[in-house]
Amino acid sequence: MHTGADSLLQVPSNVSLIDGWFPTTVQLLVITTAAAAIWRRGRRWRRVCLPLAAGVGIAAGLGLRWYSMSQGMSASPLPWILWVWCGIAAAAAVAAAVGWTYGQHWQQISAVACVLLSMLAAAHILNQWTGYIGTARQAYETAVDAALPGEVPLSALDDMRRDPPRSGVLVRVNAPSVASGMKHRPEVVYLPPAWFTGPHPPRLPVLVLIGGAFNTPADWVRSGHADAVADRYAAAHDGYAPVLVLADVSGSMGTDTECVDGPRGNSATYATQDLQRYIQSTFGTATAPAGWGIAGWSMGGTCAITLTTAHPEVYSTFLDIAGDVAPNAGNDQDTLARLFAGDVAARDRYDPATAMRTHSPQDYAGVSGRFVEGKPVGGTEGLAELTKEQAQRSQAPGEALCPQARAAGIDCDVVTTDLPHQWGLAEAQFEEQFGYVADRLLARS
């Protein structure tokens, strides 16, 4: 982890990576460098290199698009302009490589610049689509893993009891993966002011937060501002709020485990055994399931309902923000292979609908939760391109699962919003629903 205080001062915090002049400038520079790379080329280059570059670019764009759909990377197709920029990057790379011995130096440099700028333009489209990183400073902080606001070393907590803080504190932790063997990144824990009162911490409830497949644990602070939400709640409740655990169930950026045990890692065992034991022993939190909740968005939303229905002995409260109806990594066949190595029994254990049928109402005594449903990923365009299996897995989980949950003995309700499937949805709905989750956990722990 780097503090990078001096360097951060050099990064303008108000340069938007979502809209404004910067993304537009990058796209204009792509067009400019592409034009410069092909300007005043010879006849042989135009007849051989240019068609070759164009063909590779088209093939690359279409191939990447097919691959993203086949891997179930999203519940709806990614924006077509993303593949255009990817195709331009591939074409420019071919033009630079094949045509390096032809033309002037400024043309060769333009081709290389076009590759880099096209990749940056594609990254912007993806970022804009997800609402992941808002500003240049946030991008820098994420890239260097800069210290979070209010972050202190774990070793400093005991000394802070002599002068308790007025707002919550963030600490980095690394829970041992004793039972799961799961490789994961350092995680973040938020401790409310009440944790520092007295010689020993009160047994506060815990809310585990899980993001999407493309995430870092700190995103719940940098993009979701979960610590600020908890601070406002604590300020209105004499310093009391749940302990927040910003968990890593993926192990790396882009690894979609769906919080199940399988080839991508024993994520479920980590989230229900290793993580819980570490948090309880390190921070003296609640131990009964009544004091443990789980919330997440996108993949994390799927995790919330999946782990609660499969493990009611661990989690009694869930908040599912825009998850799927079941663990999802493509069509049914691909999901079975990628997440469960073909083990049908394992798939059924982590299918919420199946889990609710196999548990008794007594198992779910005291379990409750809330589904939040927004717009489909990227809006409604392209949904017709999904397979029937993908559409079924991506349908609104509240509509599909809440009636079954009530029949199984789980108290649940559904909240709908017009916000698109982006970090803005997670941030807004976490803040709006936090009172419901915190009130319930504090009352029962």
Q: What this model shows, in words?
A:
The chain is an alpha/beta fold. It is built from 17 helices and ten strands. The chain has an eight-stranded mixed sheet, sandwiched between helices. A two-stranded antiparallel sheet has the order 5-6.
* Overall spatial form: globular
Q: Strand order across the biggest sheet?
A: 1-2-4-3-7-8-9-10
Based on the coordinates given, report the CATH architecture of the largest domain.
3-Layer(aba) Sandwich
Helix % is: 40-55%
State mean pLDDT (0 to 100 scale): 88
**Residue ranges: pLDDT <50 for 5 or more in a row?**
1-11, 378-386
State the distance separating the first and last CA atoms.
Answer: 34 Å
CATH fold group of the largest domain:
Rossmann fold
- Please provide the ordered H/E string of secondary-structure elements: HHHHHHHEEEHHEEEHEHEHHHEHHEH
How many strands, what sense, and barrel or not for the largest sheet? 8 strands, mixed
Task: Please tally the helical runs, counting DSSP H or I stretches of 4 or more residues.
Answer: 17
- Summed up, the domain count is 2
Query: Care to count the β-strands?
Result: 10
Radius of gyration: 24 Å
CATH superfamily of the largest domain: Alpha/Beta hydrolase fold, catalytic domain
Which structural class is indicated by helix and strand composition? alpha/beta
CATH class of the largest domain reads Alpha Beta
Strand content: 5-15%
Pfam families: Esterase
Keywords: Membrane, Transmembrane, Transmembrane helix
Transmembrane segments: 20-39, 48-68, 80-102, 109-126
InterPro entries: AB_hydrolase_fold, Esterase-like, Mycobacterial_A85_antigen
